[in-house]
Automatic annotation (TrEMBL):
Family matches, as Gene3D superfamilies: Winged helix' DNA-binding domain. Chain C. Domain 1, Winged helix-like DNA-binding domain superfamily/Winged helix DNA-binding domain
Record keywords, A-Z: Protein transport, Transport
Organism of origin: Hirondellea gigas
Organism domain of life: Eukaryota
Any single biological process term in GO: protein transport to vacuole involved in ubiquitin-dependent protein catabolic process via the multivesicular body sorting pathway
PANTHER family named among the record's database cross-references: VACUOLAR PROTEIN SORTING-ASSOCIATED PROTEIN VPS25 (PTHR13149), VACUOLAR PROTEIN-SORTING-ASSOCIATED PROTEIN 25 (PTHR13149:SF0)
Protein name: Vacuolar protein-sorting-associated protein 25
Cellular component annotations (GO), alphabetically ordered: ESCRT II complex
SUPFAM superfamilies, per the entry: Winged helix' DNA-binding domain (SSF46785)
């Protein structure tokens, strides 16, 4: 939230507004109770869940057990946006 090349930075209050909005949209999950650390998500857990479910429907995998590895690293998912997704984010999506 700062750019030393142009001597500009966002005040802490404004940073809080941005981060709270990301959290409200589901694109940031706080990792501590004091809300000083968090994980930024490209897509919300719900959006990832939708993509996985659509893939499962298209590949006849609904009600089939798949491992995290199969979902994020498997040969059948190489063309999916969630290919290579971290296990942490995939688990959040699957729990959604």
């Amino acid at each position: 939230f700062s750019n030393p090349e142009v001597s500009r930075s966002l005040p802490p209050e404004s940073i809080g507004v941005v981060l709270n909005e990301l959290a409200r949209r589901g694109n940031l999950e706080w990792t501590d109770k004091s809300k000083t650390r968090g994980q930024v998500l490209w897509l919300s857990a719900g959006e990832w869940a939708d993509k996985v479910y659509k893939w499962a429907q298209a590949t006849s995998k609904v009600n089939t057990v798949c491992t995290l590895y199969e979902l994020t690293q498997g040969d059948e998912s190489t063309d999916q946006e969630f290919y290579g997704l971290s296990d942490d984010v995939m688990v959040k999506a699957l729990r959604h």
